[in-house]
Amino acid sequence: MTETVGAASGRGKRSTAKTGKQAGLTVERLYTTPGVHPYDEVTWERRDVVMTNWRDGTVNFEQRGVEFPDFWSINATNIVTSKYFRGAAGSPQRESSLRQLIDRVVGVYHRAGLEHGYFATDEDADVFAQELTWMLLHQVFSFNSPVWFNVGTSSPQQVSACFILAVDDTMESILNWYREEGLIFKGGSGAGLNLSRIRSSKELLSSGGTASGPVSFMRGADASAGTIKSGGATRRAAKMVVLDVDHPDIEEFVATKAKEEAKIRVLRDAGFDMDLGGSDITSVQYQNANNSVRVTEEFMRAVESDSEFGLRARMTGEVIDRVPAKKLFRTIAQAAWECADPGIQYDSTINDWHTCPESGRISASNPCSEYMHLDNSSCNLASLNLLKFLGDDGQFDAARFQKAVELIITAMDISICFADFPTEPIADTTRKFRQLGIGYANLGALLMATGHAYDSEGGQALAASITSLMTGAAYKRSAELAGVVGPYEGYARNAEAHQRVMRKHAAANDDVRTFAASAPVHKLATKVWQESLAVGARNGWRNAQASVLAPTGTIGLMMDCDTTGIEPDLALVKFKKLVGGGSMQIVNQTVPRALAKLGYQDEQIEAIVEYVGEHGHVIDAPGLRQEHYEVFDCAMGERSIAPMGHVRMMAAVQPFLSGAISKTVNMPEEATVEDVEKIYMEGWKLGLKALAIYRDNCKVGQPLSAGKEARKTETAEAAAPVVVESRPVRRRLPKKRPSQTVSFTVGGAEGYLTAGSYPDNGLGEIFVKLGKQGSTLAGVMDAFSMSISVGLQYGIPLEFYVSKFSNLRFEPAGMTDDPDVRIATSVLDYLFRRLALDHLPYEKRAELGIFSAEERSAQVAATDYGAGFGEVDMEGLRSSVGAAPAEKEAEPTGSAAPAPVEVGSSTELLELRLGKAADAPLCMTCGTKMRPAGSCYLCEGCGSTSGCS
Fold first, then answer.
1. What is the model's pLDDT at position 691?
2. How many CB atoms lie within 10 A of CB 534?
3. Does the pLDDT value for residue 491 go beyond 60?
4. Vertex 335: Cα angle to 634 and 666 (nearest 5)
5. What is the pLDDT of residue 733?
6. What pLDDT is recorded for position 866?
7. Measured torsion, CA atoms of residues 502, 503, 505, 508, in degrees rounded to the nearest 10
8. Is 429 exposed, middle or buried (0-12, 13-18, 19+ CB in 10 A)?
9. For the Ribonucleotide reductase class II vitamin B12-dependent N-terminal domain, which residue ranges apply (predicted)?
10. pLDDT at residue 884 above 50?
11. Is 627 exposed, middle or buried (0-12, 13-18, 19+ CB in 10 A)?
């Protein structure tokens, strides 16, 4: 698509003389047609976006009459409209068309490219903008979320989603860490950092006292992260905390989250059977960060040889303690087995692939562990939809893929020219090193569609070849850009190291074992790497790094991808929203495509697809050969991919990435600590940069059952006789009384409500325990509970309290796990609504407007909304104005069925089929069960993520 020219071509008006470099890029057309705008090649339609909480029907977002191409799914339409359109809701200034969104973003890239001398002529810049527009319009790729949020608006032009901070062993630096992290969370992004410079609790301060150690400072940062919600939204902040394995406090660090998880279990299982103000009820800490241990080659070899390993003082570097390496490694694996933390980052491997070692070591990563580079830096991401490059002949179009990568990496580099950053140190480092992270999504779908098992040599070879081609093409374009607008500022100092890493990538490419499907891709990758080395030797490179594999959560839904990042398919049957409203469960469209690739006839494909639609798996499907079962293995389900299969796929692509891979290796509940050790050891041997595991049900998560056995509480006060007086009389509860305990979550805060009653009925006391709040708040809630209890015993009616405390608004607020009270404006709002439902008669609750889910359903069923209005035009009431009716959505025979009313997402559909719960949180926006995306969670309903953009 593009090539560097040595002199102005004379086309259009030009001007890059100010750069002092070559004249600029000549841009050739790849997708577009001269004289035809990309918007004129598609059919547009108007749709209404009304997003509701599927559990209680409340409207979360509404915008009617938005404009999208007819081939965009309803889900992608909903997510782009609600997440990325800018302007006040309901105002004429709010964007209402995909055209406006794309033009807003592409226009800035176009102008910045011209201004900074990237193109040979104005015409080349115009072709660049049209190609970018076409690819975004047709879901070929997407920029990361901050680009869509900020570019072309009045907000700061923040384009990066990934940040790495730095903290030194001074109180000023530690407090600045809290501040910088807060600013990044406020902007909707996440950050990571390494705390290993902070001296340990075994070292002395200059004043003579003992240092408190990094773990103590993690508490403050954790509380800050739990308070500041990303971008003012409902999700919590995303962060990564790293500690070197030779830090003297490493064992305390490893145990932090495991101890807190054990605490949660004890509180849950004990049912809070303890006195008011009990000292054993404390806040649950360290829950807002991913923790990782940085292990070195020296440590891993010590584990292999079962020798001792030295822990070093932070200030002097001397060994102050020695521990058995194998025992420490077991401690790390044990903690990960118990609560999924900490993960592992292989420090020696990471820094062996570092392009800029003269400017500093790589000591940390972003929250999802894919971006790894210098401290105080950031990375702009973009991801390609791999399935868009699969031709009708079943072949991957490598040449088109290369050209697309070159154009996208050009746009990504241009973004650094106009980008804003949350802090000046981050701005300075990013502008000097220009780190980029191009990646992809839909790998799992691509492999299945081409007839490859995810855990197979052929599948891994194809993934490796595509990844190698992507990074090779990105660096080739980076070298060409260096000839036009200059290499990155830090290149001169790091030229030798950067060239060494480029040769390592090229050498790894030569080691890939190819198969029929991957051979053409690998052949082109080899050619591109040789060109990259040659051009780079002459010009240097424009970017210190080029590629990562991110979770691609929200943008994956924007591109209508079946799978995110490097992940395999979640399951063969999925949940799909329809144009005319409602939903269907459908068999993944890659299944019939894979069957055709494997040589099955139309009649066989129809029968197999119908079987999969009914059973959710391919075992015993009619006519399907057993040797083909593995092609349809998924992340979950009857035939799930083995943990080591995930590790092998990561190892296949890691040598061709500048950064790392956001992915969690799922392990079955019955996996052992030894299995975790094996995974972490193999990750090191296979050359991974980072690795995290998750064992099913290792976390308590959100308690969804309120059916615990009622506990009995005794008071130290004897029952007093009732005396007639002219003043209020306290009617004390007897020593033994019936009570009921309800567990609840409100906006992610977990707690328990115990209500004690008089034997002859009537509420007489409440105890409220919050499991994830600070000790001060726990004390306040204890005092509040006693106050309400005394009031009830003095005869204050419960309905009075309900009227006063319901609808109070303060944090935490949001989704609850109670089907009768789905959304609460505060913890007190939830508590008194729950008390009203449990202890007030229907008549009094009706006056207060408080009903159970069953009562609300009965009211709706008893109401004839159509009475008195004559015939209703149901077609005119469709939620999609002007859109094709749902019946026109073509699905293969037997592939679709009405979605069960009990589910609202693919994860919940899978739970229904498997008969067991998946370890995934509920979306705080729309209430559906989220699904894994890299090391995060993604909501299919509204596009919200658990932390990664």
1. 96
2. 12
3. yes
4. 0
5. 84
6. 39
7. 180
8. buried
9. 49-139
10. no
11. exposed
> Do residue 338 and residue 461 come from a single domain?
no
Alpha-carbon dihedral angle through residues 915, 918, 922, 926, given to the nearest 10 degrees: -60
Examine residue 792 and state whether it is found in any structural domain, yes or no: yes
317: CATH:
3.20.70.20
In the chain, the number of structural domains is: 4
In percent, how much of the chain has pLDDT > 90? 57
Domain end marker among 555, 583, 603: 555
Identify the three-state secondary structure at position 763: strand
Four-residue CA torsion sign, 250, 251, 256, 261: positive
Question: Which of 173-177, 673-677, 710-714 comes out lowest in average pLDDT?
Answer: 710-714
Write the burial class of residue 855 (CB in 10 Å: 0-12 exposed, 13-18 middle, 19+ buried): middle
Structure token pair of residue 548: 């990562």
**Claim to verify: residue 176 and residue 62 sit in the same structural domain:** no
Let me know how long the chain is.
949
pLDDT of residue 271: 58
Residue 649, domain member (yes or no): no
Token code pair at residue 484 = 């036009």
The answer to whether residue 753 sits within a structural domain is yes
Q: Does 851 lie in the same domain as 883?
A: no
Residue corresponding to tokens 């970018």: 132
Position 341 in a domain: yes
CA 474 from centroid of its chain's CA atoms: 25
Catalytic residue among 131, 260, 370, 480: 370
Same domain, 530 and 466: yes
Classify burial at 685, counting beta carbons within 10 Å of its beta carbon; exposed 0-12, middle 13-18, buried 19 or more.
exposed
**Beta carbons of 52 and 69 less than 8 angstroms apart:** no
End-of-domain residue from the set 358, 376, 393: 358
Catalytic residue among 162, 339, 356, 368: 368
- Burial bucket for residue 506 (CB in 10 Å: 0-12, 13-18, 19+): buried
Q: What is the arithmetic mean of pLDDT over 511-521?
A: 95
What is the predicted pLDDT for the residue at 56? 64
Running DSSP on this structure, what letter comes out for residue 547? B
pLDDT above 70 coverage of the chain, percent: 83
Angle between helices 398-418 and 457-485 (to 10 degrees): 50
User: What does the pLDDT read at residue 776?
Assistant: 77
Residue closest to 476 by CA, chosen among 543, 536, 549, 539: 536
Q: With contact defined as beta carbons under 8 Å apart, do 807 and 829 qualify?
A: yes
For residue 398, the 8-state DSSP code is H
Give the separation between CA 844 and CA 851, rounded to whole angstroms. Answer: 10
Cβ partners under 8 Å of residue 440, min gap 6: 383, 384, 385, 386, 466, 467, 470, 549, 552, 565
Indicate if 378 and 469 belong to the same structural domain: yes
Tens digit of each residue's pLDDT (9 = 90 or more) over 617-632 = 999 999 999 999 999 9
- Tell me whether residue 370 is one of the annotated catalytic residues: yes
**Mapped to the 3 state alphabet, what secondary structure does 203-268 carry?**
CECCCCCECCCHHHHHHHHHHHHHHCEHHHCCCECCEEEEEECCCCCHHHHHHHHHHHHHHHHHHH
Q: Which two tokens stand for residue 614?
A: 């009914």
Q: What is the mean pLDDT of residues 101-122?
A: 97
**Which residue range(s) make up the domain with 881?**
570-637+877-912
* Residue 15 burial class via C-beta count within 10 angstroms: exposed 0-12, middle 13-18, buried 19 and up: middle
**CA gap 633, 639 in Å, rounded:** 5
Angle formed by the axes of helices 673-685 and 297-305, nearest 10°: 130
Q: Which of 53, 78, 150, 366 is the catalytic position?
A: 366
- Model pLDDT, residue 427: 97
Residue 928 and residue 939 in contact, taking contact as beta carbons nearer than 8 Å? yes
Q: Are residues 534 and 412 in the same domain?
A: yes
Q: How far apart are CA 382 and CA 398, in angstroms?
A: 18
